[in-house]
Structure formats: structure tokens, C-alpha cells
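Z., the sequence and structure:
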Amino acid sequence: MTETEALLAFARTHQVTVAACESLTAGLFMATLASVPGASTVLRGGFVTYTNEMKQKLAHVNAGILNTEGAVSAACAAAMASHTRELTGADYAVSFTGNAGPSALEGKPAGLVYCAIDSRKRNRVCRYEFAHMSRNEVREAVVEAMVTQLLAAMKEELNGQEI
């Protein structure tokens, strides 16, 4: 069983749903989950917010965060996940924002990525640095990492119990 299959099986068993707000991954996380049969029982929906304008309009990220911290920031990732969970009614929401490269963005190096997982219990932010990778390698690596992180968060929070 792949990690993605394990995530979906665990979520189904505990009857929890997942949503996502994706910037640099442009829907790759949701597409990865959706590639597994039966994913529809877990996937709630989400947003692809590739621009700051869409982060504000769709994910309700405050303009102040984008103006002071930037889109490539822990604060932006946390807000994206939190608002996405609230807007979709999902039990868990994951966000992805960063710079897949090939050059610096907002003065931040290529390969710098912030992701967040939001649940009713907490909002946790993950920071990754994927140096010397192509754009698609960064996107694939962060999706893989967050499948693992989301499964770990669910196991920690649910501890075998339904929420």
C-alpha cells in the first residue's frame, strides 16, 4: 500500500474529510489523492490560488499578510489552510505555498516551500527547502512530504478515535 492509499484508508476509517489550498503545487496534491479509487469519500474540495489575488478572494488570506510576510511565508500557509478548512467544512485542510523556481521570488530562494495542516485541534506549519531540484521535482517532493505529514497528524490527533 502506498502512503497516499494509507492516508485515504485511515481517513475513511475515521470518517474525516480533507481539503486543500494549493499555490505552487497547482492542484497536484488533490490530483494525487484523487488518483486512488474511493478518494471521493474523503476529498471535500479546495482551491488553486496561484496568485495573491486568488489567495485573497478564494482562501480569504488577509492582504496584510501578503504585503508584509509575502506569499512565500509561514503566515500565508497557515492562513490558507485555516480558511480553506472553514470554507469547505473539511476536517483537515492542507496548504502549499512557495517558490518552485527557477529563480528567487519575493527575495526568497527557489525551492523554499511552506505548507500547513489545519484541523479543529491545531494549525501546524511545515517549512521545506528543496535545493537543486527542478520545478516539477519540488512540486512532487512537497506533495509526497505532505501526504506523510497529514497522515501523521491524523494519527496523532485521532489516536484511533473518530472526531
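The chain has a mean pLDDT of 95. The CA atoms of residues 28 and 91 lie 20 Å apart.

Let me know what you think.
H.
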